[in-house]
Amino acid sequence: MRQALHIFRKDLRHLWPQIAIVLALVAAYAVLAGRTSDDPFTLDRTVLQTWEVISLLGFLVPVAYAWLIITLVHQEALPGSRQFWVTRPYRAGRLIAAKVLFVVLFVTVSMVAKDWYIVAAHGFPVLPDLTGLLLRLAAWTAWVVLPALAAGVVTRNLQEVGLLGAGLVLVYALENVLAGQPFWRGSCGYADGTEWIRDFAGVVLLVIACTAIFLWQYWRRQTVTARVAVACCSLLMLVGVPLLPWKTRVAVQMLMTRPRVDVSGVRIEPDLARPRPVVTDREDPPEPYVTIVLPVRVTGLRSDLRIATDGALFDLYSGGRRVARSGGNSPSGLKAESYTWEMFSLDRATYRLLKAQPVRIKVSLSMTVLEDEPAVSVPAHTRAFGYAGSRCLQPHPEKPFSPIWCVTALKEAPRTLVAVSPAGIAESMSQDGTWSYAAYPVPLDMSPIYRMHLLIYPRQDGVEASRVLWERPDTRIILTPQQPVAHFRRELEFTGVRLADYVRHVRAELKVIHTPQ
Amino acid sequence: MSQSLRILGKDIRRLWAPLLIALAVQALFVFFEMQPHQGGAVAGLSAEGLVDILLPVAWWYLVIALVHGESLVGERQFWVTRPYRWKSLLAARAIFVALFVNVAVLVADCLILRAQGFSVAAHWQGMLWKQIPFTIAILLPALALASVTRSLSQVIVVVLLIVLRIVVDSLRSGGLPGGSTAVDWIGNDFETLVVMVVFSSMVLIQYRARRTWLARGIFAAFVIVPGVSLPLRWELGFQAFVKPAAIDTRPIRLSFDHTRGRRAPLMRTPVGNSASVALPISVNGVPDAVRLVSERARLNIATDTFDEAATLERDKRGYWETILLPVEVFNAARAKLVSLRVRPVVTAVRETEFRAPLETGPVRVPFVGICESGQPFAQYLAVTCRWALAAPLRTRVHADYPGWDAAGATRRPNEGIVGRLSDSVFPADLGLSPVHTEQAFGLAREEFSAATASAGTQLVFRTEHPLAHFETEIEMGSVRLEDYVVSEPDK
Prior knowledge:
The complex is a heterodimer of chains A (517) and B (491). With 517 residues, chain A is of the alpha+beta class.
């Protein structure tokens, strides 16, 4: 232990400028993030300026942490055989202990202190949400601390780390280009509730692989093996984890969650007999994709429940051969009577090829059943109110339909339906809050503060009438939290579909609105 | 020259890995920039966003690794004892950077411009000009920083210290926005010139004499000492020299108009530290079809002086000078009769108009670029514009439907602004991409319904062409600010 402390003190003396800079950056981030307004869309200049600096620091703080950790490891670089310390009585265990002590003191503690300060500065208690604090710490340790340690043990200097980092970003970017699927998005560009499984898989992979590489290299100093392990882990993390199919994620979700309602009787069927929506088969050159809307009907679902499509896979067959595949999701919860379609996108070339001939479409759906919890009702013109552990602010209650911001700390606000009473004021309900089905949805950004944006839409066919109703003193905003209560999968098949009959052009909507005039 | 080429060859062999990575990142950047853009920020941790960050980092890394190949700091490097001529060494560096960064960027710009529908032949001057601010603002600082440091770690320390200084400045700031003028480009270019002189002298000192502490001293002074800005009258004089005024501004007079009252109902904002006061202004001596605009003024109220983003604009009722006052100054003076002196920096503009259908594919808008409308989601129409190399002249965009000029909850004209009020004579701005895409205008909810319900609604683009610039003074005695305030923070 004495040797570990000795090495620790030596590192402290060597790296005090780096420590000072990193802690100053973290402190600056904490102070600025602690001062932010609950309404991030304010046009106040100083607030806007603060957001810009916060964004810059939000990027720089993790980078600075990684730099400090890598520099620390490089103090006794592990690759090569000509370092002075290799011939000294350094014990691997003590070297590791010294490095870990340093990281815990200057990285882990400062991470916790930053979160604690920001949460307290926003007026939320920390201790009741200690789980959130620890989950955030685990995630950031997996994303920044452990990869930095692994990168440090297989490199000699920062130049090598720079090359490694740039190479990884290139691989990631190429994977994006080739697979067309960024890491943080769902199967069709939108997040769905099972994404936390992908995040969790990434965290587990990083913890296991980076810890193993770190320990292996300290004990064995077999740099080539360790470098191969880093390359494999990076590829798995950058290419494998993002491509984790939603079907797998849904399967894991179904394994982990016990259904709270019986969904065995729920049937989803094609409803091709239903009158088709008004569509135009007009060519719109700017859009490279066309959207196909397939009518469906759901039966056997309790009337008080809603369903959301976590993932949908569409296989198109023509002449017994699969000719196209598309994916999509629609995580907004809908009641059975409103869930009347599933849609997917096709590239224009494929569409042109297939639009006139009958095709068979096999659809594989992964669904979640959502149950409404007791609603919270607040007068429409209330400036500030509390909801489900969050603090809500309507910055301009005097303005009709002005948005509401709700802020929570360390835990995301529940998925929430927004409606207005009396009925007839609002055109449609909006939804926000967490989309995650995780047992403890924790915000994983640099800041532990989570913001929910609640929108109220006026009636499209009577804006003035909506405005008059809004201004009545008895108008209330109804916020309904929703919980996922079951997940299930269904397969259905459409036969003899002529795609041209079911295409939806975005621009067509303009025309549809023109028609009644 | 042969020594320079030998050093260049050695550098290419030594730096093949970072060079390949930088070129690969450049290629990816070009790929992403050639795709159709819808404007706005890239959501999430996308590859495109990462490449935008990585590209300048890759250039910096390359330049720093290049210079550190023959480190200029210290006395114990091998090459100090060899017959290296400093001019050959510096020339080798310059050729390397020009070849692998400047030429690569030039080729990338050509590809991106073509893919986004702009003619390369029509923009060749701008593309070449862009290399100058790009080299001064991006490459020269890396070269200078590398010449006074020993390792990448030292560079990171310096960069983070500079970031900390910026952060501390932002923590201290809390004043009023400073505003801008159409002649700001002169001050900005002067600052670029200062950057060039400082960094070039650092590089020359190091390569010629290796007097590291002197070069570091110059750099530290440059970072720590606040920059000196050009006096406004110099900027106005220089502007008149490079582009003489198109109208005579001497007969133009601005005065306080007592006959008009408050411009709009008072709005209370939940946050903020300033009150906004719209003062009615009467304007005489302006030629027909010429409008005055201003976005900066010096304001004297009692003993206080503010240089701020006061705006001069015209609506149906006439001109308004909207000033900002710190809330404590406003509250101290709100009910009293106070005298004000406002010195706005005014630009006389002439407008041209272009019309396009509400639903439009890509259309060339004169003085702007290529604009198109789209409906990214229900009840929302977005008009995006893209332009090449230099920001366009400030252009106001609106949909011409009945009531557009009193729309929304604020009952003010629903219009978007693209471009900036600038009379720059240079054909290109500094930017990673030669093509910039921005949402120029949006129609949402009830405004969308109103615009689409009215047959024949058109998009109107009104571009402001600067004609002349001048500073004037408006004296206002006995003004009760409370009578003119349009927005103030809640108590």
